[in-house]
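Figure caption, in words: inputs first, then the predicted bound structure.
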Amino acid sequence: MMDDISKTDAEIFDAIKKEGIRIRNGVELIPSENFVSKAVLQAYATFFTNKYSEGYPGKRYYGGNQYVDVVENLAIERAKKLFGAEHVNVQPYSGSPANQAVFFALLNVNDTFMGFDLNAGGHLTHGSPVNFSGKLYKCVPYNVDKKTELLDYDVIMKQAKEAKPKMILSGLTAYPRKIDFKAFREICDEIGAYHFADIAHIAGLCATGLHQNPVPYCDVVTTTTHKTLRGPRGAMIMCKIEDRLDKEGKKTLAQKIDSAVFPGLQGGPHDHVNAAKAVAFKEALQPDYKEYCKQIVKNAKALASSLMNNGLELVTNGTDNHLMVIKLVNKGLTGKGKEVQNALGEAEIYVNKNTIPYEPGSPFNPSGIRLGTPAITTRGMKESEMKVIGECIAKVIDNYEDKSVIEKAKKDILELCKEFPLYPGMEILR
Ligand code: DSN
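Bound structure (D-serine present):
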């Protein structure tokens, strides 16, 4: 092996070390982040990073892929088992390219589709006007009800009958409640549309029965692998083999998806990442992963209660999944999401500013704070820690410009984190 990074690149080594200390000392509440196991990290940092393997197992454009095929086939088989999927493609580099490949496979440019409004909890790739999905295709966005802040499936059905989209995209990045994928499928069936779900955030909950699994109700499902699924940065696409809306077509749905990923969009897969995905999927098939997911939801409910008990208002007044969104409006902090995020960051509480439904501010100066429990649950924290974290967050929000309050919260968080060592024994953190 080459020289140790501590000797060859002091600057990068220093940044890695400091990042390790940051994540150890603080509470990571960004709901799309998690901490992978050492086994996943080990699989990621291997010589598979060197390989080119354009194509699919058994059909590659390069030689020397016998072990890459082992890895990719294991990742595929484990993912199929986790979600009960008929066909899986594990090659997408991340969530956005995975979604892009689905658009390429199912739609033609300028086709109409429906996606979840970004402010209310969708994603850039669900039809935002600044993203390829909103630029190349005609997006008719659906939204939550203004009063309840919940999805109203009767309203979406009515909208779908008028818009006649070729595809409806369900899924979330900031919606704190369960999604009824079956209801979306009924809407799709009514109008003859494809149903595509993006479960990047809730994949772990879907795989373990803590959220309805969309796979039976969808033509295509995408997920990233690094959020609740607790794998490396990356994504995958699951789909039915047959294309129920294109029975006369030359390609099956599975073939359309595979060719949209490669050669349609990507080149060589990231084989080191796929090795780490396979390890994470194996971990997610173990019984303790289900216990972990149960605790994510319990912790989210406990954190939501603590925040509300301390005077904060949440979108939809709570959560059913792993995330929640604090509404700053009633605290007189409309458009102050950035300032609050930064104040919490100073206290080593890591969250992200977020829009709220019918946002009165702007995407860069929004009126919400999004937070979730996957990462702190991985660390072993439970309901009693959620109570403390909720109290600290509320104090900082109420006094976001008061350095002494922030300093006190930081001390409390540091004390709490000491009891939950992250990556214990890891050499670089010594
Ligand atoms: N927007 C990211 C998130 O939910 O944090 C995913 O792309």
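The pocket of D-serine is lined by residues 32, 95, 123, 173 (CB under 6 Å).
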